[in-house]
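Hey,

The postdoc asked me to send both predictions to you directly instead of through the lab channel. I've kept everything plain text so nothing gets mangled by the mail client. Protein one:
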Amino acid sequence: MRRTFWPCLALAAVLLTGCIGDPEPREPDPTGSTSPKPSATPPPLPEAATQETPDGAASFVDHYLEVLTYSAQTGDTEPLRAISNPDCDGCSSYADRFEQRHDAGGWRTGGEWTAGELQVSQFGIDTALVTDLASAAGTVKEDADASPKSFDATT
């Protein structure tokens, strides 16, 4: 999928246009747990992602996708909302979806998003990044009563 990223305000917010595929799932815990055990802590912001440069913007995109995956797998959307532009309807929609699934007893494993080669353009003080996104395959259970369903990787 082709996406455009606009890191702005010292890379404190990002606007993702369009929709993004679901992240890659991990298999549920084979010990019989009712839900997978994703990472308990959100990915830390790399120093490079704080730089107001094209390379810094690219690093922020990678970080944003890591946080998006973390939120999809845990239902913890506070880190995602903190780095998303509040005016980004798509960003809010994904965060809401992740919270609703988690609150309903659902879960998601795998489906990690990754960015392809980035095309960087400068527009005054703004940096635009265009990339192809890929999502690994995974498993999702929409609520406590649903059966787990696998989904395919996307490129």
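Protein two:
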Amino acid sequence: MDTFLSKYAIVIQTIYWFAYLQMLWLIFSLAGLVVFGVFPATYALLSVWKQESLTSKQTFQIFREVFRRSFFVMNGAGILYGVMAGLISMNLLFIEAVYIRLLVLAFLGLIFLSIVHFLQYFERDKPLIHQVKRAFLLLWMLPKSNVGHMGVLVGMLLLVAFMPGLALFFGMSAAMFLVNKIGYSKESEQLQHKLKTHQLSAT
């Protein structure tokens, strides 16, 4: 009986934690009028998932601080990625050829993966353009991670389409949890080690 109650408590605590992080993401996204809040709020959410054993108060403080410090640079990245996605998407309005439309969707998928890598490996002391370029470079260096990230995207789209209520309360927090887990895969850890070694040798 005690084992059942302890497992039940863990499940309830996990549900609460995902819902709490989702609420923070929604609040801070709205604080940035959505358009200017989504990128810094998503980065803050991913940053919190990288921490362990946080209380609710500590989580809020970290979330708020990361959101505040990264607000302008994350919005710069959001504008840059938005322009790229917008220019590519315009082809869907004027070109009816199926293979071109598929090519456009493929490019949009690459942009999505680049955004994930940008958020995952963001460094505050590096220039924005440099980090966007590196994010696109990482597309070709992390093929296994890309498959996982695309799986997260497909799962999110299916959740929004068939269970929008769950997507509202748990969608983004669950997605960033999975992105963070994928970021700690063996492939990603090997890459991070190579990047750190390269930085040390460069200095």
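Summary for protein two, as requested: The chain is about 85% helix and 0% strand.

Thanks,
C.
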